[in-house]
Write a sequence for this structure.
């Protein structure tokens, strides 16, 4: 019997201030568990370079996006630099029903929207060991201007203030330790009773 037929998928949401090391940790998780589902988002911006419709994004008009939003088709959406971005609910729900876990690398506001639809998901907040350390990491990258770093720090202040929204906190002071914790939270989430449809027959023996 395949795993997809014995359990429902888990929504795993990971948020963190810029410079915390979120991408590195998520890439490690994806490398170990390559079967994560991926939902292609919708956007109103024009394709860049070799981007193809339906691959990097579904490229749609602003009018179409607004109509989809009005019909409640997005589980999360945002306006960034005068363009809309959103994740449709149906494809995510379909993957979950097939037993696929779906990972969201998203900001805090997007996570709050997702909670309304996927309230049984696992919501994780990654944080740096200190504000000073985060500043050093952002400065050490050598890729951002002083203005950009100041903006990222200001955003981090706002995000850290909303940490209590999340189910789990992971401090990325040591990458290996942080990954062990991220992996542990993910694996524990897979054992939530509401996802373990394979246990129903076992429980019936005691009813």
């Amino acid at each position: 019997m395949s795993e997809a037929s014995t359990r429902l998928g888990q929504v795993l949401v990971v948020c963190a201030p810029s410079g915390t090391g979120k991408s590195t940790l998520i890439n490690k998780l994806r490398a170990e568990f390559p079967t994560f589902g991926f939902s292609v988002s919708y956007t109103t911006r024009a394709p860049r370079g070799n981007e193809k419709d339906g691959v990097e994004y579904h490229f749609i008009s602003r009018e179409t996006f607004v109509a989809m939003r009005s019909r409640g088709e997005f589980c999360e959406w945002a306006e960034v630099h005068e363009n809309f971005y959103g994740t449709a609910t149906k494809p995510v729900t379909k993957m979950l029903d097939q037993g696929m876990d779906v990972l969201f690398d998203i900001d805090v506001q997007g996570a709050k929207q997702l909670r309304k639809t996927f309230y049984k998901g696992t919501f994780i907040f990654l944080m740096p060991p200190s504000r000073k350390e985060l500043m050093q990491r952002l400065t050490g990258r050598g890729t951002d201007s002083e203005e950009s770093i100041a903006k990222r720090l200001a955003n981090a202040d706002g995000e850290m203030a909303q940490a209590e929204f999340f189910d789990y906190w992971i401090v990325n002071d040591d990458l290996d330790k942080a990954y062990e914790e991220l992996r542990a939270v993910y694996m524990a989430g897979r054992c939530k009773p509401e996802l373990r449809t394979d246990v129903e027959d076992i429980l019936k023996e005691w009813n």
Notes: The chain has two domains: 1-37+100-198, 38-98. The helical segments are 22-32, 62-70, 89-97, 108-117, 131-140, 146-160, 175-189, 200-204. The first strand starts at residue 11 and ends at 15. The chain has a mean pLDDT of 91.
